Amino acid sequence: MFEAQAIAIEIEKIIPNRPMTHDLFKSIGYAFNFTVVEILISDLREGVFYAKIVCNDGLKNIEIDARPSDAIAIGLRFSAPIYTYERILGEAGIVLTDEEEDEGKPAEKAEDLSSFAPADNPTSKADPVPPSSGSVSRSSGGSSKLKNTSLAKLNEMLEKAIMDEDYEKAAEIRDEINKRQ
Questions:
Q1: One GO MF term, please (predicted)?
Q2: In this model, does residue 132 exceed pLDDT 70?
Q3: Residue 39 and residue 4: Cα distance in Å, rounded?
């Protein structure tokens, strides 16, 4: 759950009171003059994904083995592209149509992945594929309550949600505040 929260708070641009582990990695990177160039989801064995964080110190690239969830959370903080191989997408990827995204139906297995990187050539990765422009709807049941809550109370609730590290709730509250401004 922690890994998903680390990814979600970066995507939602929520700033926690204290830096999370992945934020610390970014601070260390800047302090020691290295950046994350890319994230590579490098393998899938027996249902377990493997990843590499590719860093650069200005002279050379260095690959660091990492859990994919950590690699993605760190990559997002450095705005690094995330890559994988065609064979991994073929084995684990799914394709959602707009209707399936909206209705929450299960998606079919990916079939035509010819536009992605060659299967086993790590030096020739495809450009990252941007997320679809259609947004995935989140149903939380609490949004109707938020509409009837004062702005002052919303700000108070937002601070509490962040302190409690309930980042999904914090994002929902933040969105309601942004709608009103």
A1: nuclease activity
A2: no
A3: 17
